[in-house]
Amino acid sequence: MASYTATVDWALQPGEDFLAGRYSRKHTVSFDAGITVPASASPHVVPAPWSAVDAIDPEEMLVAAISNCHMLSFLYIASKAGFSVLSYRDEAEGVMRKNAEGKIAVTRVALRPAIVFDGRQPTAEALDQLHHEAHEVCYIASSVKTEIVVEKP
Q1: Which residues lie closer than 8 Å to 108 by C-beta, 6 or more apart?
Q2: Strand 113-118 and strand 84-90: pairing?
Q3: Other C-beta atoms lying within 10 Å of the C-beta of residue 110
């Protein structure tokens, strides 16, 4: 198959006290396409000033990966089913809470896709089926224990 890489880069800054937990969680994540994004622990997990509100956090990256994979899978399934998609916008939301093992985890991701079709429109049942099939072929959905639901707009 394929392999995927990401480089996470962090360094202790002058004046920070690592052992006392007084250090910035701000770092960068670089991808093989040459894109580097600022990242941090979530301010919900590590309060400022030790986290950066203007950076992406791991939980957001997970929600984005699930949403992105579902969208790409949906576009593929829709095209094979003869539906022409003009636009797709998802305002996905992940929820963190204790899972069945008592560990804090992103336990649920709600996908809220707003899709505009050109020409033939799927029925509500056909749209549900397209989403179901997209979920079944999404590599990321197959890789996580997180509950993933599609909510109607």
Answers
A1: 94, 95, 146, 147, 148, 149
A2: antiparallel
A3: 17
